Every structure is written in C-alpha cells, then in structure tokens.
Amino acid sequence: MKETPYPAGATVYREGDASDCAYVIAEGEIEVVRAAGETAVPLAILRAGQIFGEVGIIRNRPRSTTTRAVSDATLVVITREDFDKAFGGDNSLALTILRMLCERLSDVTQKVFEGQVHAETVAASAVTEIRLMPGSPAVESQIGRDGILIETLPFRVGRRAVAGDAGSRTDAELLLRTTKPYEMAPEHFIIESRDGALYLRDLGSVLGTLVNGVRVASFEQNDSVPLKPGINHVVAGGIDSSITFNLVIETA
Q1: Given phi > 0 = left and psi -120 to 50 = alpha, else beta, which region is 60?
Q2: Are strands 214-216 and 209-211 parallel, antiparallel or unpaired?
Q3: CA distance 239 to 42
Q4: Each residue of 99-116: b (16+ CB within 10 Å) or e?
C-alpha cells in the first residue's frame, strides 16, 4: 500500500472506469457523485478513516460513481491483488458471500437513487401545512419535539450569534445554537416558493445542505432543490452533521 496525494478538485476515478484499486482516506475529504443524465447527483462526503472503491473490486464491475477530492487529500491505495489476498484469494467463501451482499446492496442503492432523482415535486398551491421537525437530539433540544409550524414563506434557518462569533445577526426566522467546529453557517438555507413549487435553497454555506440525499451548495451545479410531498430529510452541513431536520409538507 502507498499514500498518494490528490489536490482539491482532483478526480480519483470516474463512473465507468475499471475497478482496480480501493482507497482509505488518510487526510482530507472525498465527494461521491453519480450521473443522472447530464446532472451529477452528490451522494456522500467521505472523511479521514473511511474506505471507498472496494465495492467495484468485490463485485468485479466498473465504477458506478465518480469520486473527487473536496479538499487536499492523501489516500492510501490498495491494489486489487492486495485486496483479494486479504480474503484468502479470489475463490474464498468470505469473498463470495461479501460479493453477494454487495450485489443486493447495490440494487437497493440504485432504487433509492432513482427515487431521489425522480421524486415528485410539490405544487405550492396544494400545500396545506409545512412543519419543520427535529431530525436529531441537537435540534430537538432547541425547537421541541413538535417542531415549528411554518406559516409564512420564505423561511430562513441559520446559526445564532454568540460572544466572539460572527453568527447570524439578521432577522432569520430560526436561529440555532451550535458549538465549534460550526456545522451551520450564520445564514444556512431558506425554504421558499418559486415558479409554483416549493424549494430549499442553500445560502452559500461552506459545507452545503443535504436534501433527501442530494447536496445543494454554491460549489455544486445547483444551490436549490424542489421539495416533495411528505417528509424531506434535511442536513445542514456535512453528512455527519448533528443539525438535521425532517421537513414535513402536507398537501390537499
């Protein structure tokens, strides 16, 4: 195994490439995306200690995603040969079982991905109630178990300013307390009505916002995403952020 540096923005591998290596992140962050037509849909942000690229080796299939460095990263490269040796060779029982499980997981992941890409959007005129519910203990402790009934749009969410902090000092409708390292920007995202539909738009935060598994941010192709009827899962910040919500949209 050897360590290889990847500067910010560099592609590690592309969808369709041969699966010849797995990687362990020693330093930095790696983004995983998948193509949906001409759009690249963000799936995850991986950080130090996490492994990726192993599924393609196990399934003996080309890459199903594209990965790229979000920041300067150092990756430990594991060749296919070394990876196979860890399981006692190509024909080991452990590798056979793992390959079967990966096939099943891949099928489920594809169905979830297709559901995200083709999710039904909600017409603003059909909405009867919008409620922002907590998705984590960190949020529930501040907005309560019953959440917040949103009666007027737009509705902005951000980080409350504390002593010595440049948090939001605006009239955002919801300001939350967070501690360093801050997962939430002073003005993080906004829920708004646009073109007859409801959207969630990221307000230029450093880490972006995950909406139903899709990352929206100023550094992505889109900084907003249409919302769907029912429950929309929202994460402010990285994939491991403790600031999570369930945005419930009820329709007639």
Answers
A1: left
A2: antiparallel
A3: 11
A4: eeebeeebeebeeebeeb
Whether residue 181 is preceded by a cis peptide bond, meaning omega within 30 degrees of 0, is yes
Most distant CA atoms of the chain, gap in Å: 63
For residue 203, what are the contacts with CB-CB under 8 A and spacing of at least 6? Answer: 156, 158, 185, 187, 188, 189, 190
Q: Are strands 39-46 and 2-6 parallel, antiparallel or unpaired?
A: unpaired
Condensed to tens digits (0 to 9), the pLDDT of residues 137-181 reads: 999 999 999 999 999 999 999 998 766 555 545 567 899 988 777
CATH of 124-251, one of 1.20.1560.10, 1.20.140.10, 2.60.200.20, 3.30.1540.10: 2.60.200.20
Looking at residue 105, its pLDDT comes to 62
Residue 189: beta bridge partners? 157, 202
